[in-house]
Amino acid sequence: MEASPRVLGKASKIISLALPKGTEKLCELCQKTAHLQCTKCRVTFYCDAEHQQADWVGIHERICQMLVTIRSPTVLSLQQAGCIQSQLVKAELIEMCRLVAQSKLSEGKHQEALPAAQFCLRCSKDVHGPRSVQMVPAYLLLAEANMGMGNLAWAAELLSQAEWAALKSSDHVVHQRLHRCLGRLHTATGNLEAALFNFANDIYFASEEYGLDSTVTRGGYFLMANVYAKLGGLPIVRSLYSEVAQTWHCHLTKLLDTHVQNVQSPDTELEPYDEAERVEVDDMLRTMLEFEQNDSRKDSAQIALVAHCLAMLWFLAGDSLKALGFGNTALQASQLIPDLTEPIQGLLQLLHTAR
């Protein structure tokens, strides 16, 4: 017997006679004339069932009832106290949409991220105004979603607006994120010199905010290395990848040590592992491992280092099978490197004990 398909929210046709004269409802996603409305909140409208379902999966399921508060005008909501409450709800919606969009982008789900990113931008305009520097994160989210979908011209327009808003800011984090996104856009369009320029600025602002050895800064190194790989600059790629691997190895080793200490102290509450970050870091480390394994130089120390990083990452994520696979790869590559062999063997021992 076939399983019933999952119901992605419910929508009904808009009854035009029930609307005030001259009122036209627009689709939540494309802003075209709407013909359907959500039957739960009744304040969100769509041009067709496809956009209704896309919005439901992307963000609407999470925020459906919250929208009633800000989209259903009452006598109270028009008073000062009601306006303040509405702004607080919108601020909460902005943060919720930002987190959802960022998570989906980290997982490579650009199409699914689009509704949350669009709503984040729309709500940010309502709360902060269209030219506020606080609009920058929303522009970047929507630009990244469109880049992933191949809508490069629209992504460039969004980043142009983000650049204009960022002119008023001296915040290093704002400029770091902007330049990283610009670097990715120029990489996608093939303007590699511009990509290198923006990744260099990304690294500068990240080092000013977080320090040169931070994982955020090394993210810029990794992206710059990928551009040099396209340009054929393999010695530079090896050097940059080595810096990235060393930093992540130190970071993950500290996380692993803290994890082991916490397990030995039952009263200590473990912090949940960030799934979105894990996906992004896993992709980065796998890219570096594949490069090292395919490189004619076959640097065993670098292969062992990166594979050990992946083993620690998956151990912390709770996937013992993947951690064991990468741990064995690291151990095999580290046979003649005593400084690496011992911690790798220690991790494998932890894995065997846990099984």
Tell me the layout of helices and strands.
Layout: E1 11-13, E2 36-38, E3 45-46, H1 49-71, H2 80-106, H3 110-128, H4 136-148, H5 152-166, H6 172-189, H7 192-210, H8 215-231, H9 234-264, H10 275-294, H11 300-317, H12 320-333, H13 338-354
Helix pairs in contact: 1-2, 1-3, 2-3, 2-4, 2-10, 3-4, 4-5, 4-6, 5-6, 6-7, 7-8, 8-9, 9-11, 10-11, 11-12, 11-13, 12-13
In a few lines, what is going on in this structure?
With 355 residues, this protein is mostly helical.
Account of the protein in words:
GO terms for molecular function: zinc ion binding. This protein is mainly alpha-helical and 355 residues long. It has 4 domains: 25-69, no CATH class; 94-169, Serine Threonine Protein Phosphatase 5, Tetratricopeptide repeat; 170-232, Methane Monooxygenase Hydroxylase, Chain G, domain 1; 252-263 and 277-355, Alpha Horseshoe (Serine Threonine Protein Phosphatase 5, Tetratricopeptide repeat). It is built from 13 helices and 3 strands; from the N terminus they run E-E-E-H-H-H-H-H-H-H-H-H-H-H-H-H. It has helices spanning 49-71, 80-106, 110-128, 136-148, 152-166, 172-189, 192-210, 215-231, 234-264, 275-294, 300-317, 320-333, 338-354, and strands at residues 11-13, 36-38, 45-46. Strands 1-2-3 form a 3-stranded antiparallel sheet. Strand 2 (36-38) and strand 3 form a beta hairpin. The protein is globular.
